[in-house]
Amino acid sequence: MPAPLVPIDHPSSAAVAAGDPAVVAARARTTEALLRAAAVLDQVAVAHAGAGRAVREAWLGPHRARFDAERARRDAELAGLAAACRRLAGR
To answer: In the chain, which stretches have pLDDT less than 50?
Structure first.
């Protein structure tokens, strides 16, 4: 007979999960993956910022303000995603 299902927010579920080596290993892999994703997002943000600076310096077209606003929105979105990954990883 299979073990009864315990809701994830039930007080005993944390104790069961803490002692299960498979759960501990899965959490470690998930944490590592989230931190790697955050690092990649940081690298992308740095690359985008450099490209954005180069374009802003070379282009003085009529839509520059819109371009700058879009770049700022995307930069903030990348930073938010990286922060969310770190938060989920517990760092």
So the answer is: none
How far apart CA 48 and CA 71 sit, in angstroms, is 8
Contact between 61 and 55 under an 8 Å Cβ cutoff? The reply is: no
Spatial neighbors of 23 by CB under 8 A, at least 6 apart, are: 17
Distances (CA, A) of 2 to 5, 63, 72: 9, 63, 52
- In this structure, which amino acid lies at residue 36? R
**pLDDT tens per residue, range 65-78:** 888 888 889 999 99
List, in order, residues 6 or more apart from 89 with CB less than 8 Å away.
30, 31, 34, 35, 38
Of 82, 77, 89, nearest to 37 by C-alpha is 82
Output the six-digit token pair for 59. 């282009």
**Whole-model pTM?**
0.68
Give Cβ neighbours of residue 83 (< 8 Å, ≥ 6 apart). 38
